[in-house]
Amino acid sequence: MAQQDSDVLKKLLAIFRVEADEHLTAISARLLELEKIPAAARRLPLIEVIFRETHSLKGAARSVNMAEIETLCQSLESVLAGLKRRVIALSPELFDLFHRTVNSLEGCLAAVESGPTADERSKMASLIHELDRVPKGVNIRKQKAEPELDTPSQVPAPHPSTADPPSPVSSPLLSETVRIHTAKLDSILLQAEELLAAKLAASQRIGELNEITATLAGRRKEWAKIQPLLRAIQQPFEKNGEKNGRQNGSAHKTQQVRRFFELLERDSEAVQSIERRLAAVAAAAIQDQRSLAGMVDTLLEDTKKTLMLPFSSLLDLFPKLVRDLSHDQGKEAELVMLGREIEIDRRILEEMKDPLIHLVRNCMDHGIETPAVRVQRKKPPRGTVTIVIAPKDGNKVEISIEDDGAGIDVATVKSSAGKLGIVSHGEAEQLSEQEALALVFQSGVSTNPLITDLSGRGLGLAIVREKVEKLGGVVSVETRHGEGTTFRMTLPLTLTTFRGILVRVGDALFVIPAANVERVASVGQEEIRTVENKEAVQLDGRAVALARLGDVLGIPGKKTADGAKGRAPVLVIGSAGKRMALLADEILGEQEVLVKPLGRQLSRIRNIAGATVLGSGRVVPILNVHDVLKSAAKNAAVPARAAAVVKEAAGKKKSILVAEDSITARTLVKNILEAAGYHVKTAVDGVEAFTALKTETFDVVVSDVDMPRMSGFELTAKIRADKKCSGLPVVLVTALESREDRERGIDVGANAYIVKSSFDQSNLLEVIRRLL
Questions:
Q1: How far is CA 405 from its chain centroid?
Q2: How confident is the model at residue 387, as a pLDDT?
Q3: Burial of 758 (0-12, 13-18, 19+ CB in 10 A)
Q4: Which residue from 584, 359, 328 is spatially nearest to 462, judged by alpha carbons?
């Protein structure tokens, strides 16, 4: 019996926690609204709502023997009753007391099973003492109380706000809602999702039926072509057979031949009959598949909606968070929230709670300045943090969190990343502002030199990016010096299904989320260049780093039909501000994908985010684009191989022209190439090199960029414009390593671009070997 009572109490406590949380959320939201309303008449309805919520919470606590919560609610209720009777005046100090009471109730609720600690009991006793003194007219913490409630002129002025209008005081009718445990809804959604596999399988069967129908149609056409020939053979044979039969008695053989031709005719008719029946079955299957697809899509969509919640269910805690942070840091800030009514998958909302808290804390700690500093910078003393939720592209949502504070110091970000070794100091100086800003999402990077309980460790934004990308989203940041910072997160509305690109690498199939694919194209081998010992292709006028998906995943590729023509498909993928072109063996198409987790044993596999089941029943891995980009960056370097003496089949050495104004560099490159078996001629600048090209034949040109009379860029451009040597491979070896210089080298037609800071002889020899 004792065990049974204990089980009942556990169930009651679980129900109580849900109910109590709703009451506390309502109380906290109404208190924040109450602070912004100056008119006494408009305050009274809110006070009434807070009073009722407190009374209901007290009753619920009594039913599960939560005496601490019951007593604290009783004291709070007494103060609210005094406000209703207008014998107690509202004041900033009283609002602080109310919020501290709510915080204490939340802490007690979090420890509902274990019970409050001795320290928490002491704090609750102190709060009860403070609340009990209010109706007796004792000033709170020796602060002057606000005059009578119905004297609006004495009430603190509200802070201007463009936030969403307050929620209606009254709640929806209970008959319009029903409480169901989320585990049950998750089970229903899971079963509805399984129907998607049946929908895909139906499409697969239709494709197979169409293939069979096409095969039969092809056979019928072939039969139609040979029928006249068969008739031409049959008629003379029958005539000759009858004549010969009368002469030598071979009528039996004639009969057998006749039966053979009849069999062929019946076979043709049977094939036509099967083709007609198969076409009818295929047409019916298509109709059934359309009906099934419609029902599955509708059921899945409706089931998803049952698990979708408005952002308001999460954002309701943020006004209090901003208020508490402002109070703790001595700042003034107002929170504006737009788009709170937009709904999203409950699971995404739960996962986004911590990232959103991190970003709001970041805005308050790094962004919003103190009132004195803001006034000095000719800003309003009160800062603004804005959260905007907006739909994007139909099945996505964009969350932007913006502050009007100081902005991010890009130089400090570069310095912090340099100290951590994420980038070298030289690389940091070459980064654009947007590239440098992306470093704030790296673990350990912080612009705050002081480590506090809010910031300074450089972990918050790294956690934000990790969470967002785990959900299949992207995050970015923009800043305006002295004006503020904006973080943008683009997320899917649901977690279960998405559009994916099916690709083949060797015999393996993979799915790449379409949301991360910027474009699909095909490139020829001659379009693949080498830039800083890494392969790249030029798309839309820009050089994009290239990686072979098979190399990234460790899978040997196979030649495709397109590959025989010298062209291969590439997908340009992007995530967290990075982009890369992936070379695949074949792109099979785009389709709806149902995500299947890999299970606890395979919870984290590099490059793999999950799996899906195709209509054929084949299980296909889903690629983690963020991981693939990191793996591709590591594998992008052209592998160095041992240099060998390069000779033509006839034994003649390849000839290379080296243009370099520095005698030291010119001698070094000449010795490296000659040691590898090449014939080398040198030139002191671009003019001398181009003159040599007019009189001699070379297989490759290796040129410096910064030379007198004619630069390497100009030399390359003249080579490309000359009909005689326009196809000659050109390798630029230079100290100019900015992105603009690399892109200019590609633009003028260079086949490879090697930076001297990363130069070694294996790089140069490997590049030349690939070009010959």
A1: 27
A2: 95
A3: exposed
A4: 359
Q: How far apart are CA 25 and CA 57, in angstroms?
A: 11
Among 461, 426, 469, which residue's Cα sits nearest to residue 445?
A: 461
Instruction: State which amino acid sits at residue 167.
Output: S
- Among 719, 653, 708, 649, which residue's Cα sits nearest to residue 683? 708
Number of neighbouring beta carbons within 10 Å of residue 732:
29
Sequence length of the chain is 772
What are the C-alpha distances in Å from 486 to residues 238, 291, 357, 482, 483? 91, 46, 15, 13, 10
d(CA 490, CA 478): 14
Residue 669, Cβ neighbours under 10 Å: how many? 23
What span, in angstroms and rounded, lies between the C-alpha atoms of 519 and 503? 14
Amino acid letter for position 35: E
**Two tokens, residue 497:** 């299904």
261-274 pLDDT tens trace: 777 777 777 777 88
Query: What is d(CA 514, CA 430) in angstroms, rounded to the nearest whole number?
Result: 32
Report d(CA 371, CA 380) in Å as an integer. 8
| 379 CB neighbour count, 10 Å cutoff | 20
Strands 383-392 and 333-338: parallel
Q: How far, in Å, CA of 737 to CA of 759, rounded?
A: 12
Other beta carbons less than 10 A from residue 523's beta carbon: 18
Q: Would the pTM of this model clear 0.85, i.e. be above it?
A: no
With DSSP H G I counted as helix, E B as strand and the rest as coil, what are the percentages for the chain, rounded to 5? 55, 20, 30
- Closest alpha carbon to 98 in 69, 130, 55: 130
Q: What is the pLDDT of residue 638?
A: 44
Query: Strand runs (DSSP E) across 176-251, as ranges?
Result: none
Kind of pairing, strands 529-531 and 752-755? Answer: parallel
For residues 359 and 333, give the distance between their C-alpha atoms in angstroms, rounded to a whole number: 15
| Burial label, 168 (beta-carbon count in 10 A; 0-12, 13-18, 19+) | exposed
Token pair of 308, please? 């979708």
Rounded to the nearest 5 degrees, what angle is found at the Cα of 528, between the Cα atoms of 571 and 731?
A: 150
- Output phi, psi for 7, to 5 deg: -65, -40
Output the pLDDT for position 13. 78
The one-letter code for the residue type at 247 is Q
Residue type at position 549: L
Q: Where are the alpha helices (DSSP H) in 445-526?
A: 460-470
Alpha helices in 421-459 (DSSP H): 425-430, 433-437
C-alpha to C-alpha distance for 489 and 356, rounded to whole angstroms = 10
Distance CA 76, CA 69 (A): 10
pLDDT the model gives residue 251:
61
Residue 579: the pLDDT is 76
Q: Are 82 and 90 in contact (CB under 8 A)?
A: no
- 458: phi then psi, degrees, rounded to nearest 5: 70, 25
What is the spatial distance between Cα 615 and Cα 463, in angstroms, rounded to a whole number?
36
Contact 680, 674 (CB under 8 A): yes
Q: Each residue of 553-563: b (16+ CB within 10 Å) or e? A: bebebeebeeb
Q: Which helix (H) or strand (E) holds 157?
A: none
Q: Which two tokens stand for residue 161?
A: 């706000």
The pLDDT assigned to 32 comes to 86
Q: Which residues of the chain have pLDDT under 50?
A: 1, 142-175, 449-458, 559-564, 637-651
Residue 240, pLDDT score? 60
Rounded Cα distance, 470 and 466, in Å: 6
Burial (Cβ within 10 Å: 0-12, 13-18, ≥19) of residue 741: middle
